Amino acid sequence: MKTTPQVNLLACLLLLPLFCVVLPVNGYDKEMTVYVDARKTECLYHSVKQGETIDFEYQVIDGGHGDLDISFTLLDPIGLVIVSDLKKPDNMHRHDVEKEGDYRFCFDNSFSMYNRKTVFFELIVEREGDQHHGDTQWNEDLADLTPDEYYDMKVQDIMDFIGRIRLQLNKARQLQDMLRSHEARDRNLAETNFQKVNHWSMLQISAMIGVGLIQVFMLRSIFETHGRMHHLWRKLGI
């Protein structure tokens, strides 16, 4: 069944608060958690076109029994270093792409001898002006409308309003992602401290029980006249 552009536009306007603002854009948005073993370097590649913008944010959420830090390097398609971080817990970078090709994002844990690092990162690649994506399609649909219909619907105002909503939703989602990564890091740190406290508590309890048993044995041996330890105490003058 075929529908006219006017019907499609009206349907989109009616359902816009639920669906249209969450449609994918002509960019790239990826969230991932990676594990970087001790003495290892993990690299990820992504193809970026000239004129696009790279937004990269990372955070170490688990450092094993070591520090929450990692070294990060961003390299362009010919291998030149764009960004280099040395042993940082988190950071955020933005780069305007001038060379088209495969960009390399590397996490370096070679300085760690035994501890594996867990790193959460988010990569956003978009072209300037993507916040107004869909304007061309909307203009094509509006071409079949009469001036009165165009005026009554005030589509341009709606489009501007939707664009602002989309930007705010993207910022809110990014903030929620960062809060979730902070929560994961704090939870891992709390669990690690909990295990350390339990281990030390068990060690101290075992030491206390052992010392108590030794004291009981020593006291009993002092008052036993026919025991083996009694002769030793006599030699020592006790």
The rough form would be described as: elongated
Mind summarizing the main beta sheet?
Answer: 4 strands, antiparallel
Which percent band covers the strand fraction? 25-35%
Query: What is the number of helices?
Result: 5
| C-alpha end-to-end distance | 107 Å
Membrane topology: Single-pass membrane protein; Single-pass type I membrane protein
Family: Belongs to the EMP24/GP25L family.
Protein name: Transmembrane emp24 domain-containing protein 5 isoform X1
Keywords: Developmental protein, Membrane, Signal, Transmembrane, Transmembrane helix
Strand and helix layout:
Layout: H1 5-15, E1 28-36, E2 41-48, E3 52-62, E4 70-75, E5 81-88, E6 90-96, E7 101-108, E8 117-127, H2 135-142, H3 147-153, H4 155-223, H5 228-236
Concise synopsis of the structure shown:
By secondary structure, the protein is of the alpha+beta class. The chain has five helices and eight strands. The model is unreliable at 1-25 (pLDDT under 50).
